[in-house]
Amino acid sequence: MSVPSLPSFDVREIPFSRRGSWMNLSPVIGLHRRVRDVHLVSHLTGMHAVLRLSLSRDGSSVDAETSADPSTLSWLVGGEVVASAVFASSDVVRLRGAGADLVLADAAEELTPFTGSYFFREPRDGSWVFTSYETGRRYRISVLTGSASAEGEEALGQSVRAVTVSGADGWEVAVEQIETAAPAFTSLETFAEVAQRVTEEFEEYLAAVGGWRSDDTPAVALAAYVLWSATVAPAGFVTRESVLMSKHWMDKVWSWDHTFNALALAPGAPELALDQFLAPFDHQDAAGAMPDSITHSEVLYNFVKPPIHGWALTRLRERLGRPLDRVELETVYARLARWSRFWLDSRTVAGRALPYYQHGNDSGWDNSTTFDHDRVIEAPDLAAFLAVQLDVVADLADELGLDDASHWRDERDRVEQALLTELRDDSGFFAVGALSRARSKRTSLLNLLPVLASPRLPGEVVDTLADGIAAHLTEWGPATQRVDTEEYESDGYWRGPIWAPSTMLIEEGLRRGGRDGLADTISERFRALCERSGFAENFDALTGEGLRDRAYTWTASVYLVFAHDHVERRRAARATGEADVEARV
């Protein structure tokens, strides 16, 4: 096997960062906003570009290309490396160079009472400090070799605020994110030693989460980097080490994306995987609802996310590198039980069996065509997810020796029966307005997600679902909106593009229902899509082009799960002397 351990990547697509840090280096500085220069970006209190990094010679700006791997970001002029950066720790970036000066400037260029950075020289140690209003932190620049000059010290209002670092024999600086004060920067490691240490840390992580990789899963190392670099240390409302959706503008943990990240990490990093699964549950409200999202400085409850957590727990336990102990089982049981009761008590009309969404955002499919007629709907995916979760909760009650398993199974049967009788006809599943009782459009892949409950559905129902899924299938995978409908949009968010979570739920449901051939096709096409177009938020269903945020962790996670399952199936086939099933698809 000849798979590289250190993947290279384009910093314009994937931020340069490291596990534990709330900072990154990237030219992406806001929602769909990419600029020429790499910036130091912080994700404390939101996404904020703090410092602009540029190169100069004799006072004139120098254009440079960038290259990156997990340990080092480099700037090149004429093919020669003139500057490099490495994360020495979660809060320290070291930069060194020769052949060009480094300019570190306030990204805002204007100081107001609420925005920008105040810039001054620290009398105690001679360092330069940018105090950021947006992040509430200080960014201290210490010159390790070479010399520095500054412009705009103590300036107010509109002004250039910058430090220029130079040196005939090269230069090196440390940039620290600190609170009010910290000891003067010192290090016993050289820049090269730091880079080697980071390389070893990533290689250890890669061996844990992707040590099974093979030549026909070539994107595993890059997928692992996307997860590793988007992981932040506990801070603020983030109570556990957590994988953000991205260190671009999607810098939160949403209450369904965390499950996919947990599944990817489970075999090799079980404790980190459990933290991913449990993190949003730390913020369940009094009604049992999970938050829509959490990040450093906010917890949002204006929407929820679908109850896929029972299914995810079952899958997690299958993949986890160890069994759950009784305390852990009691914890997940209590949280899943409260989450289930929220849907039964607070999102189900009295006298009815089916829960409802209040908006597309609750489903995670914000603008799916299923919500075109009504936003408040009783939806087939929701009913199926809840029925699966209630089954899992009942099994947990049995496992723990509790008396309420029969209660949960009664609830499961009630929801499951209503799904089949109230949200289905001979053509398949549909949603209905919770108030209007009008039927929804049927051309969204959302209406086919009941396939996740396929082990408990009649065979003819699963056949109809499989046929519907096949009608959504393109060269790259299942489009979220049928491409032959007038509502299809190539970059329409949930009205056409291929998404990782929907693909995984569909593939999983097909396997649970014994439709392995179609499941193999979907897995193969999605893996090929990621290997071609990276780990974008979503993909054009017809061209395979990556869309929106280009460093999305749940996309990387679904690739890792699919790739791992593919490798395991091939190994099992070889061990039994059988032909590879996927090779025949």
Describe the structure.
The chain is 32% helix and 22% strand. The chain is of the alpha+beta class. The strands form nine sheets. An eight-stranded antiparallel sheet has the order 5-6-7-8-17-13-12-11, with helices on one face. Strands 1, 2, 3, 4, 9, 14 and 16 form a seven-stranded antiparallel sheet that branches. A three-stranded antiparallel sheet has the order 20-21-22, with no helix packed on it. α3 runs parallel beside α5 (309-319). The protein is elongated.
Question: Any chance you could write out the topology, listing elements then pairs?
Answer:
Elements: E1 23-30, E2 33-42, E3 48-57, E4 60-62, E5 65-68, E6 73-77, E7 80-89, E8 92-97, E9 101-106, E10 110-111, E11 117-121, E12 128-132, E13 138-145, E14 147-151, E15 157-158, E16 162-166, E17 171-178, H1 191-210, H2 220-229, E18 231-232, E19 242-243, E20 253-254, H3 257-265, H4 270-278, E21 293-295, E22 298-300, H5 309-319, H6 326-346, H7 360-363, E23 377-378, H8 380-399, H9 405-422, E24 424-425, E25 428-429, E26 432-433, H10 459-472, E27 473-474, E28 477-478, H11 500-512, H12 516-533, E29 538-539, E30 546-547, H13 553-575
Query: Percent helix among the residues?
Result: 25-40%
- Strand order, largest beta sheet: 5-6-7-8-17-13-12-11
Number of helices: 13
| Cα Rg | 26 Å
Number of strands: 30
Report the mean per-residue pLDDT as an integer: 96
Q: Which structural class do you get from the secondary structure elements? A: alpha+beta
In this structure, how is the largest beta sheet organized? 8 strands, antiparallel
Q: Outline, from the CA principal axes? A: elongated
Tell me the strand percentage band: 15-25%
Low-confidence stretches: 580-585
**Cα end-to-end separation:** 24 Å
